[in-house]
Amino acid sequence: LDNMEQGPMDNAPNILVIGAEGTGKSSLIRLLLGKYSIGESKGFFLHNGLMGQNNRLVRILECPPKRQETIEEYTEAMRNAVIQFSAPVTCVVVVTKQNTVGGGGFQLNKERNIPLDELRAA
Questions:
Q1: Phi, then psi, of 80 in degrees rounded to 5
Q2: How far is CA 47 from the centre of its chain?
């Protein structure tokens, strides 16, 4: 019975979601999984669920923003969290904040809204 339960998750896409604090990572994950609420965490948090019209099983690792730790410590923490997948990461989703500029456009600014340390760790 245990093997039957684990079998479908072995082929599940493994998605890494990274971004700065307050960018909407949790909101995006709720939208993808069709949930009204998900667990809040200040650390790495693994979400398992169904996604899309075909209800495909997925694993989504929500990565916290890098805070006081060094890039090496953050990278090691991410590596330890990714081990939970037991398979390679299928894709990385980067959630960024939008800085509006005149004319209704937006501007990406590496100092303000692109999580460079988190991208380096991924």
A1: -65, -35
A2: 9
Q: Tokens 């509006």 label which residue?
A: 100
C-beta atoms surrounding 1 within 10 Å: 5
Q: φ and ψ at 71, to 5 degrees? A: -60, -35
Separation CA 58–CA 50 (nearest Å): 6
Q: Could you give the CA distance from residue 49 to residue 10 in angstroms, rounded to a whole number?
A: 13
Q: How far are the Cα atoms of 64, 78, 93 from residue 75, in angstroms, in the given order?
A: 12, 5, 17
Put simply, whether the predicted model's pTM sits higher than 0.90 gets the answer: no
SS3 content of the chain, % helix, strand, coil (to 5): 35, 25, 40
Phi/psi for 56 (5° steps) reads -75, 135
Query: What does each of the 122 residues of the chain score in pLDDT, given as a tens digit?
Result: 233 344 555 678 899 999 888 888 888 888 888 877 666 667 898 888 888 778 888 999 999 988 899 999 999 999 999 988 878 899 999 888 766 555 555 555 555 556 677 777 76
Q: β-strands 91-95, 14-19: how paired?
A: parallel
